[in-house]
Write a structure and sequence with these properties.
The protein is of the alpha+beta class. Helices cover about 25% and strands about 45% of the residues. It has a 13-stranded antiparallel β-sheet, covered by helices on one side. The N and C termini lie far apart (about 95 Å).
């Protein structure tokens, strides 16, 4: 073998090595490029729920639910009223303790708990409450969401999902997971503000059911602080009701300056 032949083969091998290394370096970028952007994932989610027209068709919602904590042997009944844009009030009966109430009337977010008494929500807790009771979510997300970014395709609670980073208008970041097969929201991981401080929780949506032409999440599990809480929606109504139900109770009005 001549020296020139050897050099040519060495040069060719080096070129192949460089190309191989370049392909490996480009692989993550190529995989990222194949991920659907967050806006596309959100649009698919809206379609999976029934579409924008179906979601905006309703302007009143009433849920009757059961909340349970299996490990503690606790079962509670709960009812909630909601209306646009973000009016909300709920009432939950806690065995042996009494009634827990919470609400948002468009200005004031509040809770009344037998153990802590009446309380106004402020700061991040207030912002989270306003967002979470947004009646037309996910249609009106720009009211609370600054940016969304698809990070990866990953496993979430045994399901193939797109992991999406969400950045709120007040600077909070958390992650949502969308089922790659159905397009529906499978759950989220977020630090929830509470009177005890920020607590990281994982919410898993196990079941959707079609009611009034739209799909609603009807079974949710929340994992936090080593405990599991399950909310099962027993019935839903879109019939009109008296909106005075959203008026803050006297205990809360007394706290508003």
């Amino acid at each position: 073998m001549t020296r020139s032949t050897t050099m040519r083969r060495t040069t060719a091998a080096s070129r192949l090595l460089v190309l191989a290394l370049a392909a490996l370096a480009a692989a993550p970028a190529a995989a990222s490029a194949q991920l659907p952007d967050a806006e596309r994932i959100l649009a698919r989610y809206i379609d999976a729920l029934g579409g924008e027209a179906a979601l905006r068709k309703h302007s009143f919602r009433y849920h009757k639910s059961t909340l349970s904590m299996p490990a503690q042997g606790i079962t509670m009944s709960m009812e909630a009223f909601a209306a646009p844009p973000d009016l909300y009030v709920s009432r939950m009966e806690m065995p042996g303790m009494g009634t827990v109430r919470s609400g948002y009337d468009g200005k004031v977010a509040w809770t009344i708990h037998p153990a802590t008494g009446p309380m106004l929500l402020e700061g991040t807790a207030l912002e989270q409450q306003r967002q979470q009771v947004n009646f037309y979510d996910p249609l009106d997300r720009d009211r609370y969401i600054k940016a969304m970014e698809t990070l990866e395709r990953t496993d979430f609670q045994g399901r193939s999902c797109y992991k999406v980073k969400v950045v709120t208008n007040w600077g909070e970041e958390y992650h949502e997971y969308y089922d790659t097969e159905t397009g529906l929201l499978a759950g989220l991981v977020r630090k929830q503000e509470t009177p005890m401080g920020a607590i990281e929780s994982t919410v898993i949506i196990d079941e959707y059911r079609e009611v009034g032409g739209v799909k609603l999440a009807t079974k949710l599990r929340t994992l936090a602080m080593g405990m599991e809480q399950i909310v099962t929606v027993d019935s839903t109504s879109f019939e009109k009701f008296d909106t005075s139900v959203f008026d803050p109770p006297p205990e809360i009005k007394a706290l508003v300056k």
